Amino acid sequence: MGVTVPTAAAPPLRARRRSPRRDRALWTCVGIFALIVLAAVSAPLWWHASPTDTDPLAALQGPAWAHPMGTDQVGRDMLARVLGGARISLLAASSVALVGGSLGALLGIAAGLGGRLLDGGLMRIFDAMLAFPPVIFAMAVTLGIGVGLATACVGVALSAVPYVARVVRSDVLRVRNAGHVEAAHALGVPPAQIVRRHVVPHVLPTALVQIASLFSFSIVAIAALGFIGLGAQIPTPEWGTTITEGSALVLVGKWWVSTFPGLCLLIVTAASAVIAERIRVRLDPRNRSGRALP
Hints:
Helices cover 67% and strands 0% of the residues. It is mainly α. It has a domain at 72-178 and 206-285: MetI-like fold. The chain is elongated, with a radius of gyration of 24 Å. Residues 1-17 and 288-294 have low confidence and may be disordered.
């Protein structure tokens, strides 16, 4: 007579859900991003070279102890320029993400809660803006109001507004037609209170995800505008501008002038994209059933 070996019951699906504390990809990217931010902010305390001071006698020196990332064609220290560019690029991208994301979220809420005329008018404006790729739209805005870092930020922020607004609007329409919101209307609850207590709390996670996703796009778009001469202008140590200055030198073997700012741009963009994706997965209601995260 065979012996039946009892087997442990499979744990419920919710128990197999990966805890955020065990998400190695998330915390690795958070650590890298925090390290770059800390290095950029504290750079004046531990690295005293100026990102704009020139020294023709030290031009195009390779990475060495005195200049860990080498020097450019006029003798400027590349480590100082990369760290200075980090401060400029991170601040500019953060401003664009906050302003563009917040404006898009407000317009999306207005379109979702407004009448047919307001909703239709805003959607037609957004459709016209979406007819152009976002970087092309940002280029057009920058050329229209003047070349510079500030105007490039304005162009990138405006190019992101319709994307955020359409996502938030769809979420508002879903919440507006929910049963508890219709019941609140039937009970005579003031519209302002319904928006504050029922609409905004449900839409806020979506808006936060869009703002987080917008950061990685913003930092690349601002660098792209600087690369083609529409963003920060020389000698501002912005990453896109610095890559432009060193792109021709790669052909003669002076790779470090554009390589180091390009690597920093790649690392920050990849880390912020992973963080934004993890935030989206964590806040997505469809992933709260306990499905294990990748």
